[in-house]
Amino acid sequence: ENSDKLGITTLTEGKTIFDHYYAGMGFNIGELPGGQIAHYFGWEMYEQVFENKYDAQSEAGLVGGGAGNSASEDRTVRAYFYEVAMPFTYDLTVSAAFRYDDYSDFGSASTSSLKAEYRPMDALLLRASYSEGFRAPSLEELSAQDQYSSTYAYDYVACQSSGVDLTECPEIQVDNQIQSNNNLGPEESEYINAGIVYSGLDNWDFRLDYFDLKVENVISDVTVQDLINIELGGNLDSFLAANPAFDLQRRDNGTIAGDVYTRTENGSILARRGFDMEIAAEYPLGAGLFNATFGTTYMMDVEEDVYFGGPSQDMSGSSGAPELRSQLMLQYAINDFNVTWTTDYIDSTGETDVLDTSCGDSNCFKYNFAGELESTTYHNVTFSYNFGQYGKATLGVRNVFDEDPVLNSSGQYTNPELYVRGHIGREFVAGYQIQF
């Protein structure tokens, strides 16, 4: 009867220290028909200290409804790199680079890149590049303590055993203990880009680029949903035997019993393929200058795992992964006054991802996209005036027409990161900048 008097004020203290040192030297040695060969050698080192401290009661797991826990770690990185630009002709330049990084906490990694630019005429540029990359696990990913979460998931196993169609399987909340993993390794990636830039029309520029990104050993949160999907495919026992940090148990009636234990692991696959296009124009208008830029990104492939360690599929068009996103920017400037209008378009997507097991083999499970989240458009405007040495004043309105957030079929907000402008609503902003 005194439950309304029970409460606690939680506390989180964060601290990050980042010290960066670097040095480099550039020079020309050698000559090709297009000019001298440029070289650059560089070195850098940074030291990072990360600490995110929760209050003692939260650390002990005594705060109901809370999530997150303390983390503390430090790291020193030393890197050495070399770059070279080789002008084989006046029209063709090939560049290459190599970088070696040595991390104090998990090891070292080497990456390289190759780039070519060819200009057959002044107004036309053809370019292509290939590069390798890596992403080290963050200090928080390596050092975070176990944390509790009440995680949402679709229990397809329970639904299947009780005769409920998977398309009608309800979303439930599961008690989830999320563990850190201090044995994480780096993600490794390959990136290919090829494009054309044309500026042969008066006051007009055109750019078209194709991109292809593949990432292996992706650092992924292996979720409760992953474990359920693995179990649905009949592979949970072998997965738990190979990964003893995970656990999912069931009661006799088929429902999930107790806490499900998950953590972060290397091993997922991620790929992105698509096109970026941009058209820009600039014209004198009255006493000022008018600029217009239209850019769009079309996603051909958004490849992700259906579940950790399982098959992958193209998720473009699914909830959170629109195939098309575009922006139109109109700008007019007269002397020190500037007004900019931007229009952002987000294509429609599926509403929910429903697991399809009709093939009967867990190696060909896939998601079907059910329902529809409508396309949406947001408009923003900014006015600014430059007072020279006295600074610059800015006034703006985000989501000018107060466009509503995109709602699912139940009338609920969805994807707040993708549709952030709709969730916030119309927003007025003002700013003043001055440099001394």
Automatic annotation (TrEMBL):
Membrane topology summary: Multi-pass membrane protein
Compartment(s): Cell outer membrane
Keyword Membrane: yes
PROSITE patterns, per the entry: TONB_DEPENDENT_REC_3 (PS52016)
Pfam families per UniProt: TonB_dep_Rec_b-barrel
Stretches assigned to the TonB-dependent receptor-like beta-barrel domain: 36-400
Protein name: TonB-dependent receptor
Native organism: Idiomarina baltica
